[in-house]
Model the fold of this input.
Amino acid sequence: MLTNDNKIRFEMKNHLIIAAGQISIFMELTRRKSQTNKLNENDPTPLINTSMPNEKRKNSKDVTPTEKNNILSYFQKIFLDQISSNTYFHTRILFVRLLGLVYTFSFLAAYHQAPVLIGYQGLYQSHIHMKQMKERYGIWQSPSMFYFLPWMDTSDISLRTICAAGTLLGIFLLFTGRCNSIILFILWCFQTSILNIGQLFYGFGWETQILETTFLGMFLVPLYSLSKIDRHSPPSILFIFLMRFLIARIMLGAGLIKIRGDQCWRDLTCMQYHYETQPIPNAISYYLHQTPASFHKFEVLVNHFIELIAPFLCFGPWRSIRHIGGTLQILFQILLIISGNLSVLNWVTIAPALWCFDDTYPLYKYIFKRETYTEVIYCGIRQRIKVLKSIIKLFVFSLIIYLSIDPVLNLFSRYQRMNSSFDRFNLVNTYGAFGSVGKIRDEVIITGCNKSTVEQCSHDNAWLEYEFSCKPGKIDKTPCFSAPYHRRLTWQLWFAAMQNLQYNPWLIHLMVHLLASDQYSPVKVVLSVGGNPFPDAPPRFIKADLYRYKFTSLGSGDKNWWTRTYQQSYAPIFELKSPQLKSVLRQMGWKMPKVPMRS
Done:
């Protein structure tokens, strides 16, 4: 019999033998696995049945289990996991900040200008428009939050509140780079609401471009997290593709409308006029206008290359090609930003172009700290939530592809439409700009007089000119820089100069406002600083004339920026008690304002 000490020694010996055996088995398995990995590294070809003759194997249509798994894995990665072998976290941060800049300036401009343009005392009062739309089509034909907000016909509180909230959210995105789908959905609702009651003053192509970009962006940011780099919510590869598809449609639409439009785009002469006749030139526009004709032709050729050929680089099979495509588009937009005041158009166009870059883009190493991102493995409830989100994204992706059919067909139509939508929510739209370029620049100049009679005004040359923000007026006035802030009234005055007064009844309403305004009236926000020649009391008479403007030449010795010549009367002389004026106001459903006007 064994003593207790011997029993203990015996049991310990058995345990050591068992442990040693387990260690040897583990080491053997590790060795074999290491050998297998080395074989795979040296020979990356999939394992196949070597008993099959080579010729027979080449001609066989059978797919091995490994190949089947590779195909299934590929489709799962694209359509279910929706992830790429590349990461796009840095691109997403830049995209969020850029979208924040666009919304900050869009809603800031709306906060200042919307009450004058579409407020309850505005030039095109939104409460009248909403009432007409509701009676004729119902509220869902052009959905807007303002149908459900109070006081739209008595004050601008609701309008200013939405604009202020949008501005604050835009500032948050701009300075933090943090965003989620909830914030973008709120901004999308705000933008849709203002667009659908904005009428003439919100009829620009970039309004719908902002909406489409924001809608796609909802599926590229985390659902609710505000983390800058949320590894649980990488950008969906499907919507990265849609962003590249968007920048391609924007540029191709702009390029094709030019080729089909003005002859000067085909004979390479449009840029000889563009800088002078664009809506709001800046000081750099003046100097670019002075460059030789050969340089202007080169500019047109570059424009055609960027808009008609370079968009296809955004779909390149190699990342270097996509990087080149995105870089060309962004540099082109930066040149447009420098050469004119096109509001937020160029900034919002850069946003989808950013998605040509993954996190390996060379310039990112100068902007971001180098970080390593690991793939997150989901399990349990997280996996089920991820699958549900992927299914929703796949459904929306399919919807966008379906809605894109008409816009894509429009690109190849002889009767191409630009800046229009085929659905009421503006999810997929057509785009284009400057299909025709004006060869001359006319400006509507509004003047007032406070003399007792019209004859006395003319005899004493007492007509004093109103100056509007960033609008060419006095010939010694320096062209301004205002983009991305949008001067909506100034743009509409540019359009009005190309048409007759009968197509612009809002201009009569503007003249009525000026006849009832002093330095404290709301209309002052659309005038330049010191632009109201009647700060203490409104004028008695008002009129509008048409002048032709041209840039002065650098070598002429003229210190002014412009020369101008009188063309004709644009609007007759009005005073508040004019029967003509009262008739127009009654026909449009507008009320005669109180003097002086107050918000």
